[in-house]
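## retry 2 of 3
previous attempt timed out at serialization; input unchanged, resubmitting
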Amino acid sequence: MSQPQIGIIMGSKSDLHVMQDAADVLKELGVDYEITVVSAHRTPDRMFTYAREAAGRGIKVIIAGAGGAAHLPGMVASLTHLPVIGVPVKSNNSIDGWDSILSILQMPNGIPVATVALNAAKNAGILAAQIIATADENITKNLIAFKESLAQKVEESAREMEGL
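## retry succeeded, writing output
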């Protein structure tokens, strides 16, 4: 594995069951990534360090997943010039996920966080790869093949349904 281009962070290890989808799709697309726990509330110094040093380590996009109050994506976005993609996670202490969605989605002007659907870490991984692909032909080719495979699956499903 070469130098990671995508940083995947989450507020708690309990979010891994969701955030693993981002890692899996990035691996499938040939994008190097790192993954770790960075809590905005329990380890703010770790969060500050991660956000401020990510670009210097070669990270191009940060995917930040968080549940409940979900401050991690916005706080990280306030500390870096890198694009941040927020993944709202439906957690045990969540209000059916709405608290996470709104905490990530409703950022003030000047501190954007791209926000995907609840528990949609796979989409966050795809979006991060699309951002990286603007400057990487190999990832572009991998994304095109990935999207073509999605279309093929729909065509196969349609043929199966029509044959019933």
